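Histidine phosphatase family protein
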Amino acid sequence: MSSFTLHLLRHGEPEGAGRLLGRSDARPTSAGIAACVERACGLAVHGLISSDLQRASKAARAIGGSLGLPVTIDPRWREMDFGAWDGLATTQIDNAALGRFWTNPDANPPPDGETWSTLVKRVTAAIDALPSRPTLAVTHGGAMRAALAALCGFDHRQVWAFDLPYAALLSLKLWRGDAPSAQIIGLRS
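Predicted structure tokens:
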């Protein structure tokens, strides 16, 4: 069974950092874009994919310019939709409701938001659509964690054990098949 490398790069720092920025289309800072370009420097990839949100897509376009690659935009790589909580700092959200969400995000999603399993299914579909060649996806922390759940079998609690700050690069060796799987081969933050 053949494998290929999938690099997942979290977007750089956006305006309004420190809030739940799911579907909010926060602009990236110039320092955030530069951090992503620096992190991607030297990657041997043949494909470049990005979330459609500008905090990821603007970084992807800058990376594409430096690597000489076109960018494919795929909204399935978006961050989790936090519904009514979108754009809020966690201190602005009822502690009990937030605690229930972190404990069981499928049973207690944000009001009018996305469930964890919906995010995992969406990201799994994006992964399934990838060509089997070294690829870089510029995406979001939640989508990266959903990829770990889908490919490595981690549950929602285990994926939070990974620190994925802005411009973090998670590299996976991915195998196709009836049940795709992956091995973590690098994490730089």
